[in-house]
Protein backbone atom coordinates (compact mmCIF):
# COMPACT_ATOMS: atom_id res chain seq x y z
CA UNK A 1 0.00 0.00 0.00
CA UNK A 2 2.80 2.39 0.88
CA UNK A 3 4.58 1.42 -2.30
CA UNK A 4 1.47 2.21 -4.34
CA UNK A 5 1.21 5.67 -2.75
CA UNK A 6 4.87 6.40 -3.47
CA UNK A 7 4.47 5.33 -7.08
CA UNK A 8 1.42 7.57 -7.43
CA UNK A 9 3.33 10.57 -6.05
CA UNK A 10 6.29 9.82 -8.32
CA UNK A 11 3.95 9.78 -11.32
CA UNK A 12 2.51 13.13 -10.26
CA UNK A 13 5.98 14.57 -9.80
CA UNK A 14 7.02 13.33 -13.20
CA UNK A 15 4.13 15.12 -14.90
CA UNK A 16 3.96 18.23 -12.67
CA UNK A 17 6.49 18.69 -9.85
CA UNK A 18 4.35 21.33 -8.12
CA UNK A 19 1.20 19.22 -7.88
CA UNK A 20 2.15 17.36 -4.71
CA UNK A 21 3.08 20.54 -2.89
CA UNK A 22 -0.15 22.30 -3.91
CA UNK A 23 -2.28 19.40 -2.71
CA UNK A 24 -0.47 19.37 0.62
CA UNK A 25 -1.05 23.11 1.08
CA UNK A 26 -4.74 22.76 0.18
CA UNK A 27 -5.16 19.93 2.68
CA UNK A 28 -3.40 21.99 5.36
CA UNK A 29 -5.55 25.07 4.76
CA UNK A 30 -8.73 22.96 4.88
CA UNK A 31 -7.66 21.52 8.22
CA UNK A 32 -6.89 24.95 9.70
CA UNK A 33 -10.32 26.44 9.02
CA UNK A 34 -12.31 26.85 12.22
CA UNK A 35 -15.98 27.68 12.12
CA UNK A 36 -17.12 30.59 14.25
CA UNK A 37 -19.73 29.80 16.88
CA UNK A 38 -23.35 29.93 15.87
CA UNK A 39 -25.72 32.43 17.45
CA UNK A 40 -27.16 29.62 19.57
CA UNK A 41 -23.68 28.74 20.85
CA UNK A 42 -22.99 32.41 21.56
CA UNK A 43 -26.28 32.70 23.44
CA UNK A 44 -25.36 29.62 25.49
CA UNK A 45 -21.93 31.08 26.27
CA UNK A 46 -23.40 34.36 27.49
CA UNK A 47 -26.60 33.10 29.15
CA UNK A 48 -25.53 29.63 30.22
CA UNK A 49 -25.16 28.61 33.85
CA UNK A 50 -21.88 29.47 35.50
CA UNK A 51 -20.19 26.47 37.11
CA UNK A 52 -19.32 27.28 40.70
CA UNK A 53 -15.84 25.75 40.61
CA UNK A 54 -14.76 27.51 37.42
CA UNK A 55 -13.77 31.13 36.98
CA UNK A 56 -14.40 32.44 33.49
CA UNK A 57 -11.36 34.69 33.60
CA UNK A 58 -9.21 31.54 33.70
CA UNK A 59 -10.71 30.17 30.50
CA UNK A 60 -9.25 31.01 27.12
CA UNK A 61 -11.49 33.41 25.22
CA UNK A 62 -14.13 31.62 23.17
CA UNK A 63 -13.75 31.81 19.42
CA UNK A 64 -16.24 34.53 18.56
CA UNK A 65 -16.19 37.29 16.01
CA UNK A 66 -15.82 40.90 17.07
CA UNK A 67 -19.36 41.67 15.98
CA UNK A 68 -20.78 38.80 18.03
CA UNK A 69 -18.79 39.91 21.05
CA UNK A 70 -19.91 43.54 20.81
CA UNK A 71 -23.52 42.46 20.22
CA UNK A 72 -23.41 40.50 23.47
CA UNK A 73 -21.70 43.42 25.21
CA UNK A 74 -24.35 45.90 24.11
CA UNK A 75 -27.18 43.54 24.99
CA UNK A 76 -26.01 43.00 28.56
CA UNK A 77 -22.76 44.67 29.53
CA UNK A 78 -22.73 43.53 33.15
CA UNK A 79 -23.22 39.86 32.37
CA UNK A 80 -20.79 39.82 29.45
CA UNK A 81 -18.15 41.65 31.48
CA UNK A 82 -18.59 39.20 34.36
CA UNK A 83 -18.36 36.13 32.16
CA UNK A 84 -15.66 37.25 29.72
CA UNK A 85 -13.46 39.72 31.62
CA UNK A 86 -10.20 38.81 29.89
CA UNK A 87 -11.71 39.02 26.43
CA UNK A 88 -13.38 42.32 27.31
CA UNK A 89 -10.12 43.75 28.57
CA UNK A 90 -8.28 42.68 25.43
CA UNK A 91 -10.95 44.11 23.12
CA UNK A 92 -11.05 47.43 24.97
CA UNK A 93 -7.26 47.71 24.85
CA UNK A 94 -7.30 47.12 21.11
CA UNK A 95 -9.95 49.83 20.73
CA UNK A 96 -13.66 49.69 20.12
CA UNK A 97 -14.38 49.93 16.38
CA UNK A 98 -15.55 53.49 15.57
CA UNK A 99 -18.98 52.51 14.19
CA UNK A 100 -19.76 50.64 17.42
CA UNK A 101 -18.36 53.12 19.93
CA UNK A 102 -21.58 55.02 20.53
CA UNK A 103 -23.71 52.02 21.43
CA UNK A 104 -20.93 50.29 23.36
CA UNK A 105 -20.19 53.41 25.43
CA UNK A 106 -23.89 53.78 26.23
CA UNK A 107 -24.11 50.15 27.29
CA UNK A 108 -20.94 50.29 29.37
CA UNK A 109 -21.99 53.44 31.19
CA UNK A 110 -25.56 52.29 31.75
CA UNK A 111 -26.79 55.48 30.11
CA UNK A 112 -29.98 54.08 28.58
CA UNK A 113 -32.26 55.81 31.04
CA UNK A 114 -35.65 57.26 30.09
CA UNK A 115 -35.75 59.61 33.09
CA UNK A 116 -32.39 61.14 32.10
CA UNK A 117 -33.64 61.61 28.56
CA UNK A 118 -36.76 63.35 29.90
CA UNK A 119 -34.60 65.63 32.03
CA UNK A 120 -32.51 66.47 28.99
CA UNK A 121 -35.64 67.43 27.06
CA UNK A 122 -36.80 69.60 29.94
CA UNK A 123 -33.40 71.27 30.41
CA UNK A 124 -33.16 71.97 26.67
CA UNK A 125 -36.00 74.47 27.00
CA UNK A 126 -34.54 76.24 30.03
CA UNK A 127 -31.77 78.81 30.21
CA UNK A 128 -28.56 78.51 32.17
CA UNK A 129 -26.45 81.24 33.80
CA UNK A 130 -23.44 79.58 32.16
CA UNK A 131 -24.64 80.08 28.57
CA UNK A 132 -22.40 83.11 27.83
CA UNK A 133 -19.33 81.19 29.03
CA UNK A 134 -20.35 78.09 27.08
CA UNK A 135 -20.89 80.21 23.96
CA UNK A 136 -17.35 81.60 24.20
CA UNK A 137 -15.81 78.15 24.49
CA UNK A 138 -17.77 76.47 21.69
CA UNK A 139 -15.80 77.93 18.80
CA UNK A 140 -12.41 77.21 20.31
CA UNK A 141 -13.07 73.71 21.59
CA UNK A 142 -12.56 71.76 18.35
CA UNK A 143 -11.33 74.18 15.67
CA UNK A 144 -9.78 71.38 13.61
CA UNK A 145 -12.85 69.13 13.54
CA UNK A 146 -15.28 69.74 10.68
CA UNK A 147 -18.28 68.80 12.78
CA UNK A 148 -17.66 71.67 15.22
CA UNK A 149 -16.09 74.23 12.89
CA UNK A 150 -19.25 76.05 11.75
CA UNK A 151 -20.61 78.41 14.46
CA UNK A 152 -24.12 77.91 13.11
CA UNK A 153 -23.69 74.20 12.45
CA UNK A 154 -25.31 71.25 14.16
CA UNK A 155 -22.09 70.24 15.91
CA UNK A 156 -21.68 73.44 17.90
CA UNK A 157 -25.42 73.65 18.50
CA UNK A 158 -25.52 70.13 19.97
CA UNK A 159 -22.34 70.72 21.96
CA UNK A 160 -23.78 73.89 23.46
CA UNK A 161 -27.08 72.21 24.26
CA UNK A 162 -25.44 69.27 26.05
CA UNK A 163 -23.16 71.57 28.05
CA UNK A 164 -26.07 73.83 29.00
CA UNK A 165 -28.21 70.87 30.08
CA UNK A 166 -25.35 69.45 32.11
CA UNK A 167 -24.86 72.79 33.87
CA UNK A 168 -28.52 72.68 34.87
CA UNK A 169 -28.42 69.00 35.81
CA UNK A 170 -25.34 69.20 38.03
CA UNK A 171 -25.52 72.60 39.65
CA UNK A 172 -22.60 71.82 41.93
CA UNK A 173 -20.27 71.65 38.93
CA UNK A 174 -22.29 73.83 36.60
CA UNK A 175 -19.93 74.45 33.72
CA UNK A 176 -16.17 74.54 33.61
CA UNK A 177 -13.74 74.88 30.76
CA UNK A 178 -12.75 71.52 29.40
CA UNK A 179 -16.16 69.85 29.62
CA UNK A 180 -16.51 70.37 25.88
CA UNK A 181 -13.53 68.08 25.35
CA UNK A 182 -15.46 65.30 27.08
CA UNK A 183 -18.71 65.95 25.24
CA UNK A 184 -17.22 66.43 21.75
CA UNK A 185 -16.03 62.83 21.25
CA UNK A 186 -19.38 61.58 22.54
CA UNK A 187 -21.21 63.70 19.96
CA UNK A 188 -19.00 62.31 17.22
CA UNK A 189 -20.46 58.88 17.94
CA UNK A 190 -24.02 59.44 19.18
CA UNK A 191 -26.88 61.96 19.23
CA UNK A 192 -26.90 64.79 21.78
CA UNK A 193 -29.51 63.23 24.07
CA UNK A 194 -27.49 60.04 24.44
CA UNK A 195 -24.26 62.04 24.83
CA UNK A 196 -25.84 63.89 27.76
CA UNK A 197 -26.86 60.59 29.39
CA UNK A 198 -23.35 59.13 29.01
CA UNK A 199 -21.79 62.33 30.38
CA UNK A 200 -24.07 62.25 33.41
CA UNK A 201 -23.37 58.59 34.10
TrEMBL record:
Keyword terms, alphabetized: Coiled coil, GTPase activation
PROSITE patterns per the UniProt record, alphabetical: TBC_RABGAP
KW Ribonucleoprotein (keyword) present: no
A GO molecular function held by the record: small GTPase binding
Domain Rab-GAP TBC: start-end pairs: 95-201
Superkingdom per UniProt: Eukaryota
UniProt entry tagged with the keyword Chaperone: no
PANTHER family assigned: GTPASE ACTIVATING PROTEIN AND CENTROSOME-ASSOCIATED, ISOFORM B (PTHR47219:SF9), RAB GTPASE-ACTIVATING PROTEIN 1-LIKE (PTHR47219)
Stated name of the protein: Rab-GAP TBC domain-containing protein
Lineage: Eukaryota, Fungi, Dikarya, Ascomycota, Pezizomycotina
Amino acid sequence: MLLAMLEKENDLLATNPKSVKVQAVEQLSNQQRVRPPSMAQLRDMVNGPQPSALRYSMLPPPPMTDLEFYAALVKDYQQTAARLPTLLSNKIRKGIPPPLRGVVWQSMSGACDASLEEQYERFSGESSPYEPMIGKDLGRSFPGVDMFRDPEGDGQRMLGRVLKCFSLYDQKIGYCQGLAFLVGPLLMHMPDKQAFCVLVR
